[in-house]
What we know:
With 383 residues, this protein is an alpha/beta fold. It is 41% helix and 14% strand. The strands form 3 sheets. The chain has a 7-stranded mixed sheet, sandwiched between helices. α3 packs across α12 and α13 packs parallel to α15. The protein is globular, with a radius of gyration of 21 Å. The termini are far apart.
Amino acid sequence: MSPTLASKLPRVGTTIFTRMSALAADTGAINLSQGYPDFDPPQALLDALARAVREGHNQYAPMTGLPALREQLAAQLQHHRGVRVEPDAEITVVPGATEGIFCAVMACVRPGDEVIVLDPCYDSYEPAIELAGGRAVHVPLTLPDFRVDWQRVEDAITPRTRMLMINSPHNPTGSALYREDLEQLATLAERHDLLVCSDEVYEHLVYDAREHHSVLQWPALRERAFAHFSFGKTFSVTGWKTGYCVAPPALTAELRKVHQFVAFVAVTPVQQAIAEFLAAEPDYPATLAAFYQRKRDLFNDALAASRFTLVPSAGTYFQLLDYGAIDQRPDSELCERWTREHGVASIPVSVFYQQAPELRLLRFCFAKSDATLLRAAELLCKI
């Protein structure tokens, strides 16, 4: 007789990313659904990893991360953001930003607390909130440009509100917060004594001469925010599953209490390799915006003759295509049909909403080789 099991996440199934990547593999379609590059990372980084393994960096690192890596990350934040961070007390290296976000939520959200999330929101946020006993309060971004309506956010705040989660540059839409957005966030967080969980994993992928604005650059947010970053996105090594979280000492201490019992440490030779690479190539992250903007423009220019409409992505390596002039079927149905019939896999934007509005949008990843992007665009132009 099977034991009785009541799921803690009854509404959660296999992620859309797994499903669409599997469908692409089954059908031989070009996979522009899941967000990972199909090209190699810098050779110097690969060499550094091989060297780290050969030289014996294969046992547990300190729970907080290798000191050499945390020192390099503090230098990076000073260099790119003008922010001073104490590497021992404020930086924690984690096995991926998703784990860091989970630990931040578990450390601070208690049963009955509310956490405001902005729809469309990345799919890992709400399960973390629910597992902590909290409730996600969904506030939709405004259409068509996916901006934050800060009055609507404030209207959603109640005495139970504990945290507000933001994501910029934003997955899945490719939008990015402006300076005035961070200023309004700082005002609200102080006024209502809120914690902030800031997903900034695409921090270096911002285009058209715009700047990334981090919560770490606002003193009022700096003292109440967890900021999460990803080496996988920055160095094109998503399979290395390594990132880091920056937070003030009191919040960092709480995050580490959870982190040590979830994963304990991130992978040691990966940390060693990244520390060595950053020491040798401190300006490498600053090259990424131009690299990915060229890929975005290549893909979009190749779609000029298509029936899709688009606004160039402001950040991330995702581009939304509006198919409203082609078909009126739901995006979740159409992305599967077109994967099978036209050979290009994408992600439906509606899955990132609690209650999706009338959208005709599909998300495509342009972190691919030029040949892959041109071939995908050729197929999409035939729809």
